Amino acid sequence: MDMNKLSGEVVDAAIQVHKALGPGLLESTYERCLQQELLLRDIKVERQVICPIEYRGLKLDEGYRLDLVVEDSIIVELKAVEVLNEVHTAQLLTYLKLTNIELGLLINFNVTLLKDGLRRLTTAKPNPKPSVHSVHSVV
């Protein structure tokens, strides 16, 4: 599935969960319900995926877990906090780097409107636009 379409499905599923439950619950509740909503849409999703860390030959499995991994291509990090902070963004960016997954969604369910709690992050480099010179050199 196209990454934009897939991430759109995840966001739509999160909106459905938020409409049904509203803000104020535990993160784990939203996590399990979002997993169920995605499964009902026939989207592969894994919950609490172990994220090992390697440092100079030392492999650490110290309890770092990804909330949800969708179709092996999107990390979904869920929060139920008053406000998203830069540390939440940094956490997701670090997970993307450690796993070589390029797309992540940071979703805070503790908001009145879910769109106010959404961040889409990517580590992918944008495709450079070809310069006029390089276009003319293609034969």
Description:
The chain is an alpha+beta fold and 139 residues long. It has one domain. It is 38% helix and 25% strand. It has 4 helices and 7 strands; from the N terminus they run ααβββββαββα. A hairpin with a 2-residue loop joins β2 and β3. α1 crosses α2.
- Our count of helices gives 4
Counting helices, strands and paired strands, the structural category is alpha+beta
Q: Roughly what fraction of the amino acids lie in strands?
A: 25-35%
| Total domain units | 1
Query: What spatial form do the alpha-carbon principal axes imply?
Result: globular
Cα distance, first to last residue? 33 Å
Major sheet details = 5 strands, mixed
How are helices and strands ordered from N to C? HHEEEEEHEEH
How much helical structure, as a percent, in the residues? 25-40%
Described by its quaternary structure, the protein is single chain
> Strand tally, please?
7
Strand numbers in spatial order across the main sheet = 1-4-5-6-7
User: Roughly how many Å is the radius of gyration?
Assistant: 17 Å
Mean pLDDT: 90
Stretches where pLDDT is under 50 for at least 5 consecutive residues are 131-139
Write the layout of secondary structure elements.
Blueprint: H1 3-21, H2 27-40, E1 45-50, E2 53-55, E3 58-60, E4 65-70, E5 74-79, H3 86-99, E6 103-108, E7 118-122, H4 132-137
Parallel strand pairs: 5-6
Antiparallel strand pairs: 1-4, 2-3, 4-5, 6-7
Helix pairs in contact: 1-2
